[in-house]
Amino acid sequence: MSNEGGSGYNSWIPNVWNNAVQEDPWMPAMTKQQRLMGFMAFLLGGWLCFGLSIIYIPFILIKARKYVLLFSLGSVFTLGSFSMLWGPWNHLTHLLKRNRLPFTVSYFSTLFLTIYTAMVMKSTVLTVLCAAAQFVALMWYVFSYVPGGVTGLKFFTKLFSRAVLKKAQSTLPI
């Protein structure tokens, strides 16, 4: 059944997401619905790993490696979710385009450095700094790919900063 007419068991899939699924030479046999389900499964796996890593934040001095490994696994799952949506070959060629190279280099270098500082160097301070850089690169990635992500992020940043400034001005005796 197709989603074109809006009827059938997969009519709940929004057309925006349905149109984001592209044909890929590395996954030619997967249907749009299978790819969307794979996208959601990888994304949920990433969120699960991020959630589990958050549990270790209070113990980051003691359990830095567990935190970083869970966080990095969540990051890889999130990246994999978009490869499922677009197709791995399409996603890889897109990541290697000239305008995306700064992200690609920053993301993969912070991912590697985070794991390296946690597992080889065993430096908590460097591990936390690399994990923070990895988080920034991941957020840049997610917000640049979600439709309206960067615009929505700018909107909510302005909205939040205005609310904080308004509250600070009314509260603080300046």
Can you describe this structure in just a few lines?
With 174 residues, this protein is mostly helical. It is 73% helix and 0% strand. The chain has helices spanning 15-20, 32-55, 64-86, 88-95, 101-121, 124-145, 149-171.
Structure report:
- The chain is mostly helical and 174 residues long.
- It contains seven helices and no strands.
- It has helices at residues 15-20, 32-55, 64-86, 88-95, 101-121, 124-145, 149-171.
- Helix 3 packs across helix 4 (88-95) and helix 5 runs antiparallel to helix 6.
- The chain is globular and about 65 Å long.
**Helix-strand makeup class:** mainly alpha
**Rough shape?**
globular
- Stretches where pLDDT is under 50 for at least 5 consecutive residues are 1-18
Number of strands: 0
From the N-terminal CA to the C-terminal CA, the straight-line distance is 64 Å
N to C succession of SSEs = HHHHHHH
Radius of gyration: 19 Å
Mean pLDDT: 77
Largest sheet: none
**Helix content, binned percent:** over 70%
The percent range for strand residues is under 5%
Number of helices: 7
